[in-house]
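<given_protein>
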Amino acid sequence: MSATTDKKLVEGLEHLRLADKCMKTSLFKWKPDLDGAAAEFAKAGTAFKNAKAYDQAIESYVKAAEAQKAMNSPFHSAKSYEQAGLLCKENKAYDQAVDFMELAAYMFQEHGTPDTAALTLEKAAKMVEQTHPSKAIHLYKKACEVAECEDRPMQSGEAIGKAARLLVKENRFDEALECLKKEINFYLEVESYAHVRKVVLGIILIHLHQEDYVAADQFFRTALSYPEFGTSEEAGAVQDLLRAYDDGDDESARSTLSLPIFKYMDNAFAKLARDMKVPGGIVRSKSPEGGTSGSLGTADEEEKYPGGLC
């Protein structure tokens, strides 16, 4: 242990001693000095954090948060809980980290800063996307609700969109579709039509991934009523994709799905595009004479239709 670390540990312990002194009452001091205690606990948290004594730092920040809450200072309480949560993340104690971040979000709401509350919930969700995706989805949805209550459609759309993309990665497609449709409504409200077009592509890909051409086609027709969509590059690409899918033309579908508009989508959707299967897919290949001939995707189909399809 270095001399600097030792010094910070001693500093942290001294601040804890002073905090405990502030909390004590006596014959001539009837009430604890919450303000002084909160300040000392916060200083102790910082000292322990710098010494990388994370458990002690977390405990100090939580005590600071509780003192600040008791003296009706929700904003400072929220910041202290947030510090505790971030340090729990450093300790890889993700469940505890999320608990403290949710407490911080609640205190930000109580203070009257719901936008910060929503961002805190999103930050918590980001912490656990890889380890606890279901928890992250819940937190993103909660962030959306907080922003929606305060009439912040753009922030709501971003949060519910993050939940939707995680749902796609988890193969929870029906839930993902619900979230994506909400995302579209939020973006329509703020006239963010470029975002709308991207979400439409995602919904179409999910329906086709589920081999539900009818639902994909119906949604495409609905999307044509969205401002600026009907004449967009996205609309043309979707139309080509649906035509190829309906014809069972795997080669045309592959060609469309390899366009940058699909290829550079968010990873969750790009994977759907890459892995797309066209039912009964016919591959158009060059014949020996230089023309084209249709070949079925499987040997069983070739035996079933020895002369090819008419």
